[in-house]
Specification:
Layout (H helix, E strand, L loop, with lengths): L1 E5 L5 E5 L11 E5 L4 E6 L2 E7 L10 E4 L2 E10 L2 E12 L8 E5 L2 E2 L23 E3 L1 H10 L5 E4 L1
Parallel strand pairs: 3-12, 9-11
Antiparallel strand pairs: 1-2, 3-4, 4-5, 6-12, 7-8, 8-9, 8-10
Length: 155
């Protein structure tokens, strides 16, 4: 009933898989910002729960859909060229150049250093520019689960 994972610091936590989603029936991606979690929901049941780090004020609560997905994306922010695996876009802030979406923790293309260690997902002290950062295996699962048009619910 539960999927158990380690954060890398020896602590183990449980993810509620198999329970009904708080956001209702259907198949969608649910991002609950206050929980720092993204959920894959199929037929109203949570299939996977994933820790995330984001800058939540940049992503408004609402209902969206995946606009496009790119397995190998890149972006330049603050003078650094970031490699962004498994990018799924669902929102563009008015006046912004890029989209907000879900993706694996990016890394600096020059130094190969990640923007944050995986074990820090869900913890304070790290933030994105609005996207929901995910661990590599979680970003792969989301990339396989969602396609253009998949509903996204941000709460």
């Amino acid at each position: 009933r539960y999927s158990v994972a380690s954060r890398g610091l020896g602590d183990v936590y449980k993810r509620q898989v198999g329970e009904k989603s708080s956001a209702g029936a259907g198949t969608y991606v649910l991002w609950i910002k206050a929980e720092n979690h993204v959920y894959l929901v199929e037929d109203g049941v949570v299939k996977r729960a994933m820790l995330t780090t984001a800058e939540p004020w940049k992503t408004p609560v609402g209902d969206y859909e995946i606009e496009y997905k790119v397995q190998h994306a890149a972006s330049t922010e603050d003078g650094i060229r970031w490699y962004i695996p498994n990018f799924l876009a669902f929102y563009q802030r008015p006046g912004a150049i890029g989209h907000i979406g879900f993706h694996q923790i990016p890394w600096d293309e020059k130094t190969k250093k990640p923007a944050q260690p995986v074990y820090t997902l869900g913890m304070p002290g790290y933030s994105s520019h609005g996207c929901a950062r995910l661990a590599p295996k979680d970003s792969e699962a989301l990339y396989s689960f969602a396609h253009e048009g998949t509903k996204v619910k941000v709460r």
